[in-house]
Predict the 3D structure of the following.
Amino acid sequence: MLTLAAGGFHMWREFASKLDSIALGLRGIREDLGENVASLWRCVHQMNTSNGMSCPQGQDEQTLNVAVHAQTSELPLQLVSGSPRAQPSHCTVFAAVLTQSVSEQETIKFNKVLVNDGDHYDPESGSFWHITDLHLDSSYQESAKPRNVCLTSLGLPVTDAGPFGSHLCDSPWKLVHSALERMRALFPHPDFLIWTGDSPPHLPVGDLSTAAVLDTMRNFTSAILTAFPNTLVFPALGNHDYWPQDQMPGNVCEVYSKVGQMWKEWLTDEALATFKRGGFYTQLVPWNHTQDSTPLRIVSLNTVLYYKPDHSTAGLVDPGGQLAWLKGVLSAAQRDGEKVYVIAHVPPGVDPWHNTTFYNPATNERYLSILRTFADVIVTQMYGHMHNDCFRVLRDTAGTAVGSVFLAPAITPWKPNNGKIASPLANNPGFRLYKYSHEDYGILDLWQYFLNLTDANLKRFADWHIEYKMAATYNLKDLRPHSLAQLAKRLEEPHGKAFALYFKYFLVSFSPNLPCVDCCQWIHACAVNFLDHTAYQRCLAQHRQTERLPSGCFAR
């Protein structure tokens, strides 16, 4: 509905049926609602031929939004974000609101667009999905005896089995499908989708094979293609996407070749050629919001090559030549005026649970040096691997925030175990939607969705819903480096509200009231603030002294 000074609209079903007849007008609006005046007014006049309810002048935005929401609540609605798209098989109902009077000679710019969940569509921003760590356990059987429910419990009895899984098991197919279906229902046409790896289950080497790994990755690729057939997907390899797990080579291998073939629907020939050599690639996002918009480049890295358990690359200065290649790609992007999103599976920085870096220390420092050198080009970085929801702030040598790092939580609810004892902590399944600026591609917000696994199993229904919206939750202007640095500072406040929220969401609301204070707080707060190990240790030492904590407090 276009709610103008001339009046509102009432008959939503009749309105929806007219969308096809005004497709030309909508196409004119798509790129910029103020750009094509003639097309816009043609669209307006057609819509104003409908019968409609009157909207009193001077009605405030909140009241108007509630009224629109009430009118549309019984219709099959879809979340609107990004540029409106012509989709013959879908009907998208939205309301563009013009609250200022204009003449037909003026350029029209709608200042608010209302959608079915009460949020606002911003034509200057876009959105994309991020999923990671799906970890399929195809052996999962809800009705089996406790020790036979799934292989990934490693023989531990599973007493909480339900249709959507258990915290002792990796993901059953039903959980993965429910996640993809919910993502499609929420937002079927993202600008793109990021998938940061780890498809196979957490099983001993002897229980898997290259064929099993490839079969799982093929199934997930097919599932994502089915859920998002018209969406460009940018994938990255995880440490479990190889057999034996963690042992990724820095050269041509069967996995790189065959997985590359699976992903040929998404990647260019040039990207595929690079991927088949070392499991990494780069590719421009093939659209522009305006003719003069800055190009956006995705750089997908194989950071498993730097992962400490990868013995096949131990001692190599630059396995696969990836770091040299990365510097070349970023230098060219800098020269050509491009912006870059870096995606990968294993993140740089410190694993707070083990008080050490994920990469071998020398490579961690070399990688961070490259990120700092090209901080003007790299807009943000996105990873998985930890299964937890967290972020990091990249700082230059003077301590100024120059980069943002986001670690998305896993789909799998599995918690680590050794066959005798399991970790007391786990995560609920989660996926997220990023909001970004069309102008500079800066991250504006992220909407984290989650599934309360216990409730879902009890109700036998997967009620995926918003866990939090980051900017609003932490009262941030956006999620650019400067804003994240402000939040990172607040995480250091002893017993502060910001850190309590952070740790709740870190576990994806697995145990919302679990305290994390003193030593627990500082290992996480320091990991957020410092990605290099020396600075991280210095941060811990400072808190150990100022908070008068025992010297063994941070030992792992």
Remarks:
- Residues 225 and 231 are 8 Å apart (CA to CA).
- The radius of gyration is 25 Å.
